[in-house]
Amino acid sequence: MATIKPGGLGIKTRLFQVIFESDTRLAKGFDIFLAFLIFLSVGIILLDSVPEYHSRFGTLFYVVEWGITLLFTLELALRIYCLEKPKLYLKSFYGVIDVLAVLPTWLALLFPGAQTLVVVRLLRTLRLFRVLEMMTVVGEGRLLMDALIRSRHQILLFLFTVLMLVIIFSSLLYLIEPAEAGFSSIPKSIYWGIVTLTTVGYGDITPVTPWGQFISMMIMLTGYSIIALPVGVFSAEVIRALRAERYSDEACPGCGKHRHEKDARYCKYCGTWLDEETPDPRRAG
Question: Is residue 239 domain-resident?
Fold first, then answer.
């Protein structure tokens, strides 16, 4: 963390407060300006894909997109500059998104068409929840993600079991149904089984024999029966996470990561002192 000098805050600290925080008018303005650039950039990509607009405004779109990309590249460089441990930030969710936000346009120099991937910049607008004082929504989103991670083993076991059932049922249909009905191979039968189990029912492959239709009904009933199982597992983890929720959303001056316990004094990811108003007692000597 940048040290606080007698004459005022250091340049890194000022940059950190503007770029990573949102408790000042300047910081909020910075985030809103970034959001405007993001929506503008994505809008340009969408319009540029329309042949009529591309032929009329293609050059303008190209210039504006490069201007936005250069601004985002400068912003990413400033984010790295004002952190003590930027490598940790670059490995975080927002760090990866910030890098991906500038890569497509640069890659387009080597791979034409890659600039279409700039739509990933929309993920950067998640920071707007902080600016609009909607951090409760972000916190709930993180809570759901934590619950999903904790229940991943049960959900993976469930998906593996479903996959086995689909393969078994689909193989039976491959043996029973004629190739003319669409069951020309086991992989195609598996495609039919997944479509049937999820009750989507495209209708491009349909069993025509009585036994095939009977098995289809069993798969559909199975789909309705087991759909509630992962929901129950996930809901239980959400309830458990709600009981244990005790985090704040202060950004770490060292790595830029959030999600610290409310009474934490040091970052749990990199060990940086979190209180910007007082010096780190480890450096007092």
Answer: no
